[in-house]
Design goal:
- This protein has helices at residues 2-23, 30-42, 44-49, 205-208, 414-417; strands at 27-28, 73-77, 84-93, 98-99, 112-116, 119-120, 135-137, 144-145, 161-163, 168-171, 184-186, 191-195, 211-213, 218-221, 235-237, 242-243, 254-259, 266-267, 276-281, 286-289, 300-302, 307-311, 324-326, 331-334, 353-355, 362-364, 367-368, 376-377, 397-399, 404-406, 423-425.
- The chain is of the alpha/beta class and 430 residues long.
- The strands form six sheets. It has a 16-stranded mixed β-sheet that branches.
- A hairpin with a 6-residue loop joins β2 (73-77) and β3.
Length: 430
C-alpha cells in the first residue's frame, strides 16, 4: 500500500515539473528590457540590421533571453532568482550597420561585446563606464579617431580583452591602459602613431598581459625594455611599423611569438640570448652580428634581409620541431653539419621550408652528375652512395641561390624522386 502511494506521488511530481518546464519562459530583467528599447528606439538604423531584436505581443519574443530568438544575445540567471535573466554577452557580425556604437553600456551586466565585420564609425567614451565589461572586440570596422584616454583613467572596467584590429584609429596608445588588468590588447592594421608607452608594461600589466599586438601601424621609437618584466607575456607582435633601436633583454620570458619584422630596428641580438621563443620573425630590419643561442629551437624562424653574420645556428637536430627556417640575404659564413650532403638524412621530419640563399656560405658538397648516370663526382669529399635521392621527408622548398659553393648537390631527378619537394634552387658558383 505504501509503495503504491509513493509511486502515485512520484508520478505527480514528474508531471508537475514537466508541465512547469513546458510553460517556463525566462523573464528578461526589466532594466535590460528598457535598455534594449532605448537602443532600438534611438538607433533605428541599427534596429533595421537586427530584425530578430523585436518586441511584439508574443510572449516568446518579448523575452530577449528566451531560447535564442534574439540572435547574438546570451543571458545568465540573476543571482538569487529562478526565472529572471540578465544579458551578459552580445555577438554581432556582418550586420550591415554603419554608424556610431549604440549605447550598449545601458546593459549594466554586459560582460562581453563582439561587434565585428560591420560599419561602426566611432566609440563614445561612456561605453567603458561599466563595472562588468571584460571583453570587447570591434575588429574590422571603420572606427576613426583615437582610443579614448578615459579608458583606464576616468573609467576602469574589469576589461581583460580589447581587440580593435583593422579600423582607422590614429594617435597614440593611451598609457592609461596600464591601470587595467588586461590580458590581450590587439590593434593591428590601424594608423596608431608615436612611441609604444613603456609605462604600459608596468603595474597590473606586469602579470596580466599575455598578448600585445600592434602590427601594421605607424608606431615609432624603441621596443620598450619594460616588456622583459611581463612574466606572462607570450606574444609580442609589432611588425610593419617604424620602430627603431634594438631588442631589449627577453631572457626571462617564454614567448610563443616575437614578430617585429619590417621595421628600422638595428644593433645586435644579445637581448635574445637564452630566450625561449617558438616563433621568431625579425626579417627586414638592420640587425648585425651573430644569431644568439636560444633556450629552445623555434618552430618558425625568419631572419631574412638583415646584416647578420657568423654561423647559422644548428636548430635542425631532429626532433627539433623546426618547420620554417629562412636565413637568406645576410652575411652568414657557415652552416651546421646537418646541412652538408652526408648529413641530410637527419633533417627534422617536419621541416617544410629552408632558405639560406644570398649569404657568404661556402659549400663543399658531394653529388651526382646526371650525365654520368648516377656516378658520384666529388669536390673534396667522399662519394655518397645515395646522393641521387635527396633524403628529405617533408621538405617542400630548398633554396641555396646566389651562394658561394662547389660541387653538385643533386641532379634534376630529385623532384621526381621526392614527391614532397616541389621547388629547389641551387645556383652554385663553381
Amino acid at each position: 500500500k505504501h509503495l503504491i502511494v509513493w509511486l502515485v506521488f512520484l508520478v505527480y511530481c514528474v508531471y508537475t515539473t514537466h508541465s512547469q518546464n513546458l510553460n517556463f519562459i525566462p523573464i528578461t530583467s526589466p532594466d535590460d528590457v528598457q535598455a534594449l528599447k532605448t537602443i532600438l528606439g534611438d538607433y533605428p538604423a541599427f534596429a533595421e540590421t537586427v530584425p530578430s531584436w523585436n518586441f511584439s505581443n508574443n510572449a516568446y519574443d518579448t523575452s530577449p533571453c528566451y531560447g535564442g530568438n534574439w540572435v547574438g544575445i546570451t543571458c545568465n540567471p540573476v543571482t538569487g532568482t529562478v526565472s529572471t535573466y540578465t544579458i551578459v554577452s552580445i555577438t554581432l557580425a556582418f550586420t550591415g550597420y554603419s554608424g556610431p556604437l549604440p549605447p550598449f553600456e545601458l546593459l549594466r551586466n554586459l560582460a562581453s561585446l563582439t561587434f565585428v565585420q560591420s560599419g561602426l564609425t566611432s566609440i563614445h567614451e561612456n561605453f567603458f563606464n561599466s563595472t562588468s565589461l571584460r571583453a570587447v572586440d570591434f575588429s574590422f570596422n571603420n572606427i576613426s579617431g583615437e582610443i579614448p584616454t578615459s579608458l583606464g583613467s576616468t573609467f576602469s572596467p574589469p576589461l581583460e580583452l580589447l581587440r580593435l584590429d583593422f579600423n582607422e584609429l590614429e594617435g597614440p596608445i593611451p598609457d592609461s591602459l596600464r591601470n587595467l588588468n588586461m590580458s590581450v590588447f590587439s590593434a593591428n592594421g590601424n594608423y596608431l602613431s608615436e612611441d609604444i608607452p613603456p609605462q604600459l608594461f608596468t603595474g597590473p600589466w606586469q602579470t596580466s598581459i599575455t598578448k600585445f599586438s600592434v602590427s601594421g601601424n605607424l608606431l615609432t621609437g624603441p621596443i620598450p625594455s619594460t616588456i622583459g618584466n611581463c612574466t606572462n607575456l607570450s606574444s609580442f607582435v609589432a611588425s610593419g611599423n617604424q620602430l627603431t633601436g634594438s631588442i631589449p633583454n627577453l631572457s626571462n620570458l617564454t614567448l610563443v611569438e616575437l614578430l617585429v619584422s619590417s621595421n628600422n630596428l638595428s644593433g645586435n641580438l644579445s637581448g635574445l640570448n637564452r630566450a625561449s621563443i617558438a616563433n621568431l620573425a625579425i626579417n627586414q630590419n638592420n640587425f648585425t652580428g651573430p644569431l644568439p643561442t636560444l633556450n629552445i629551437n623555434p618552430q618558425f624562424i625568419d631572419v631574412r634581409c638583415n646584416q647578420l653574420s657568423g654561423a647559422i645556428p644548428d636548430i635542425f637536430k631532429s626532433p627539433s620541431g623546426v618547420q620554417f627556417a629562412m636565413f637568406s640575404v645576410n652575411n652568414f659564413t657557415s652552416v651546421p653539419d646537418v646541412l652538408t650532403v652526408n648529413q641530410l638524412y637527419s633533417l627534422p621530419e617536419g621541416l617544410n621550408y629552408l632558405n639560406f640563399s644570398c649569404n657568404s656560405v661556402r659549400y663543399d658538397w658531394c653529388g651526382t652528375d646526371s650525365v654520368a648516370e648516377g656516378q658520384a663526382i666529388c669536390q673534396g669529399c667522399d662519394p655518397h652512395p645515395d646522393c641521387v635521392s635527396f633524403p628529405v621527408k617533408l621538405l617542400r622548398e630548398l633554396s641555396l641561390a646566389d651562394s658561394s659553393g662547389s660541387g653538385v648537390l643533386f641532379d634534376d631527378t630529385v623532384p621526381s624522386s621526392s614527391s614532397r619537394l616541389w621547388n629547389w634552387r641551387a645556383q652554385i658558383q663553381m
